[in-house]
Amino acid sequence: MIFSPNFISYLPWNDKIDKGGRIALMVFTKGDVINIIGFNEFLIPVVNYWEEEGYKVEISYDYRVKDKRNKIFLVVDNPKTQVPWRILLEELKNVEGKTLFLNYPRVFKTPDHPVWKHHWDGIIAFFWEEYLPKNIYLVNFPSYPVMEKQATESRDDLGIPKNKKAILVIADYSFENVLLYLAELKKQEDFYLIVFVSTWEKEVFLREFLKKKGIEVDRVVVGGVWYDELQLVSAVDLVIVDGGKNVEPFHVYKLVGCGTPLIIKDKIFTNFLYNEVIKFDGKEKTEIKGITRTELTTGVMKFKDKDELFYKINLIFTNEHLRNLVLGTSRAFAYAHSPERVGSQFLFIFKDILNPPIYVPSKKAVRYVNNPLFKARPNVYLNLRRKKIAWEKLVYNAGAIRIGGTIYVFYRALGEDGVSRIGLWWSKDGYTQEGRLDYPIFGPKESYEMPKNPEQRRRFHKRTFGMIREIGGTEDPRLSLIDGNLYMTYTAYGDVVQLALAKIPVEVFLKGVKSFKGYEEWNNAWVRNGPIFKYLEDKDAVLYLVEERKEEYSNGKRAEDDFVNVFPELLDKKVALIHRIPPDMQILYTDELKKRSIKVGRTFLMPTPKFWDSIKIGAGAPPLKTKYGWLHIYHGVGDWMGKKAYGLGVVLTPLDEPDKIIYRSAEPILQPEEIYEVEGWVPNVVFTCGVVPKNKDSNEILDLDDEILIYYGGADEVMALAEIKVGDLLPIEITANIY
């Protein structure tokens, strides 16, 4: 990919000129300095990641500017430090680089505080809080994936009996009520009780309390470095943290994913973990009594009183399925919040602030005049386990592929039983139906594709919603053609909403269209890979071949990496996987699993404050290969006409650097306007999983005159179609300078 020297002339300079009339555009590259002003220890592993990536980090602990020539100044709020705001903010007015403010949670600031009056180039926050401006970048709080631990040795060192359950109480904060509760429980249940405090001073206070209340514990552990505390956590069967106002969020996140269930006071949970539930749009309840969706997502349990604490201790110790689920999701949560991922979010923001993408509007996609393209058929049935099931209640969110001049649309069908399966529709011209099977070609078969107890979930839905909604199944297929195989990423909705992967040889698929006789034959023809990221709540994945491997690795997949799982043949090529852990999208190359074992990848694209996709974003269809780069149609969520709406936008990346953004559309190319998009099962939604060339096969390279067809779901109820030329999606300001 080569850029013309004239490319820079097309930039909107009115947004790139500072007060002195100088060009303010800066390129942020490895070797540049990140000047951190102030500090907090949760940033230590993030800083280590930045330095591993080749950036220099300078820390000003005294909150003073030392070198105004640096490109990035990140001011870190710290509740333990008296920050000289007026002096610092005055100094920041004279720096040459960009200034960003990292807001620390739970530090109350009134609207008239000087920090909000300062002109920041960017504001970053971990959690939504009422006093924050709305034009912020939201990042994830860093957690720490499972470390190498010697739990057995730790148990022996601590003298924990092998035949007893061990409970650890973190007593650096409020602990009085928890110890009183556990002393009562200990009279009924025989377990080993350990209490941890970080300092000798806190130990004195703890022992005075124990003596006064007559409480006996089996062991008190004092202090030690961070790693020692994690070793201790890994040695026990359960960790409990009560909460006062001084609980640090990084302490909670540090404990998540250490291989031990964690139960914390509900106030801490609400302050620091409830933010995770935004990905579920407020659907907090689950079919498991007393367990919320956020608890299943994070793997962290909460309690508000003695009865709830006892109930959840009993669940953890007696319900093996729930315990395994909690351990799996907490581990996945830690990987998703790893320093590598969070550090890459910051790097994306730094680059976005220093060198913003060109926000030039593209043209709008044109809807097919006969939309909806097709609807659910109430008269098609499946016979499963001697039951007759109407498997098409709603149809939407279809993947698509063009092979040999025929377009195949794999659509999601939600049945009357609340189970999602995948149906097949095909066409020569893309508009006129050539065929549509009366049965699905893919559906739930493995344990991760359905909840363990679907009937319990159905009863819960009837009780909660008054109807059966989405019980489980296989959702939102996206298709990629690589080396004679048709790969399909999809969402497996079991006890956890996970990304999954399956494949079918193209010749088998084409044969099946002509000769397969039913659902079971189709379902058995697919080879399932299983979840891509084990237990990780994740969606919206696209897979595409970047290039053939240029070198081979004889050791194969790293033995210690048992979290990420893809077909072995994909490790022998450079294949890109883009997926979505809210609020941003991540990109992972399969060769990294061999060289570096990066677990979830680095940030590919983030929501943009003040734009149409400011709330959250996710992949649409696998990108199309054009002469000008990889063309992505993605979905974004933001405010539109006073309502939260799903729209479609455009991103272009170089063919040889798929994680570098050349262009991003200023406005959506498609947003809910028609009745079938505005009203339905989920109002105000246009959502695509399938985009194909109109007159070329999906693996061919496109030029500006080529048209593409966008198959999308309207309001999660019907299938619709829109079309547009490649040249209408990419402004001439972009294409004229790439050759």
From TrEMBL:
UniProt entry keywords in alphabetical sequence: Glycosyltransferase, Transferase
Cited Pfam families: Glyco_hydro_130 (PF04041)
- Single GO molecular-function term? glycosyltransferase activity
Protein's UniProt keywords contain Zinc:
no
Q: Which domain of life does this protein belong to?
A: Bacteria
Is Glycosyltransferase among this UniProt entry's keywords? yes
Similarity comment = Belongs to the glycosyl hydrolase 130 family.
The name on file for this protein is Glycosidase
Query: Which species is this UniProt entry from?
Result: Dictyoglomus thermophilum (strain ATCC 35947 / DSM 3960 / H-6-12)
